[in-house]
Write a structure and sequence with these properties.
Layout: E1 8-10, H1 16-24, E2 29-31, H2 35-44, E3 64-65, E4 68-71, E5 108-111, E6 116-117, E7 122-123, E8 130-131, H3 134-141, E9 151-154, E10 173-176, E11 183-184, H4 186-196
Protein name: ZZ-type domain-containing protein
Keywords: Metal-binding, Zinc, Zinc-finger
Pfam families: C1_4, Ssl1
Length: about 200
């Protein structure tokens, strides 16, 4: 029970056993009063609670590398396929490769100081280092820290404000980022919160 946190939402009366379980595991116990209250309680659990540091707890660090995507100028072996006895994917193989050659001519590959690979995410077979790209790490991080809700603001008549992303004129309403105060239209606001989970003005 050291690393388990339980939170319960009850539909009926308060249950002592459920409440004691939540208190013991440092969770949250709630009783829904109506349908609207239930939606509010569920929204509170969408964002995961912060992990509380315990006495003597040490951070676990994952070492990873970010290889560069470069063009291959000479015949080479792909570490993520050739060392495993597999053929490189057809999308990564140059059509001019010699069929009799044991090495696949890759037009581009991910180079790190120890080896190079045709696909990411991969584990370096030489040094055991996790290799990935910066966008892959950003997509994984967005689920830990979601984009805050933009504040809705009215646009005054005669204003020449434009959306920061698509550069369309904002006629009636704008959605303002609380961190950088950039203005967005409704379409870009939906795209940022539902798909990208990152504010382009903040970055």
């Amino acid at each position: 029970m050291r690393s388990v946190r339980c939170s319960i939402v009850s539909f009926g009366a308060e249950v002592f056993a459920f409440k004691r379980l939540c208190v013991t595991t440092e969770g949250k116990y709630s009783v829904a009063l109506d349908e609207q209250h239930l939606e509010l309680l569920l929204d509170e659990h969408v964002q995961p609670p912060p992990v509380q540091r315990r006495p003597g707890q040490q951070d676990s660090i994952v070492r990873m590398g970010f290889p560069q995507l470069r063009r291959v100028t000479e015949p080479s072996f792909c570490a993520c396929h050739e060392l495993n006895g597999e053929a490189a994917p057809q999308s990564a193989i140059d059509g001019a490769a010699d069929e009799k050659s044991s090495s696949s001519a890759l037009p581009r590959a991910f180079f790190c100081p120890h080896d190079f690979l045709s696909l990411l995410t991969s584990l370096s077979l030489l040094v055991g280092l996790l290799l990935l790209t910066a966008p892959q790490l950003a997509r994984a991080h967005q689920h830990l820290e979601s984009l805050p809700t933009f504040a809705e603001a009215n646009i005054a008549e005669g204003s020449e404000k434009c959306c920061f992303s698509c550069d369309e004129s904002l006629l009636r309403k704008a959605y303002v980022c609380p961190n950088c105060s950039a203005d967005f239209c409704i379409d870009c606001d939906l795209l940022l919160h539902e798909s990208l989970q990152v504010c382009p003005a903040c970055n």
